[in-house]
Amino acid sequence: MSPKSVVASPTGLVIAQNMMYTHGISVFNAEGQMLTRISDSLPLQKLGRKGSGSAQGSPVEAAFSPDGAFAYVSNYYMTGPGFTRQGFDKCSENAKFDNGFLYRVNMSTKAVEAAVEIGEVPKYVAVSPDNKYALVSNWCSDSISIISLAIFQVVKTIKVGRYPRGIVVAHNSSKAYITVMGAGQLGTIDLTTFALHKWPSAANTPRHIVLSPDGLTLYVSHNLSSVVTSHDAATGRLLKRVVTGTKPRTMAISPEGDALYVVNYQSGTMTVVSTATMKVTQRISTPPHPIGVTFEPTLNRVWVACYSGLIKIYGRV
What we know:
This protein has about 325 residues and is mainly β. The chain has one helix at about 20; strands spanning about 5-10, 15, 25-30, 35-40, 40-45, 55, 60-65, 70-75, 100-105, 110-120, 120-125, 135-140, 145-150, 155-160, 165-170, 175-180, 185-190, 195-200, 205-210, 215-220, 225-230, 240-245, 250-255, 260-265, 270-275, 280-285, 290-295, 300-305, 310-315.
């Protein structure tokens, strides 16, 4: 594996997205046993393209439907007939890339059953708790794609600024919170009107964003500033900040909301932060370059994906 992200369902399945390095979606049970690997290759017709043959994806991030029946997986870029401009993290206004695709994976059959074209170099995926929308941040298109899950089509594309990344949806599905790394901004998207509101970030390069279980507090990791900040979810007002390690990337929050788990890419650590005090309570060494983290709820454990090719599972203290 070369896992870019790891995401737990509410039903005891965990998936790891392997991007273009080893391709495919690895599926595990809650105990950590690998069940299968889902191919990221699809017939061109399923991608809405003419001709015979197939194209291969690059699974990067994922989110589950509220009941865990489906997973929605973003693909960094596609390779195959008709795809000639592979995406890259360094975007260029003069060199447009091929659009990526969002896959719908049926977790009963363990197969990709549909795909929808989105923007250039798609990154994070979030699903609204009412199961109405999937939202995807398009890194090089400076946009958020909003996909109706009823028809599995893009219903709105919203320009938000340079290098959008993190997304989390309010528990009542009324709005989405986003991070725009290149612009140094946070924001909200109203999921009824699709109106966008933004405010300045509290530190450089806001990357990932999670919401407390009570819906009152946002937590944001800042890659280059190497801090995690907490904010009032209603206003965006900065509450506190904590240094967790060098280049904090993805975060997960415990179901009770008392602990925040942060993987620090350059430090090779996972940091546990008390949300009550915004202070570090534990620092755990991981394999090199931890990049993804998720909380698996059925066994109450934390999974960490590392670019070194490993997934580590940690019990809660």
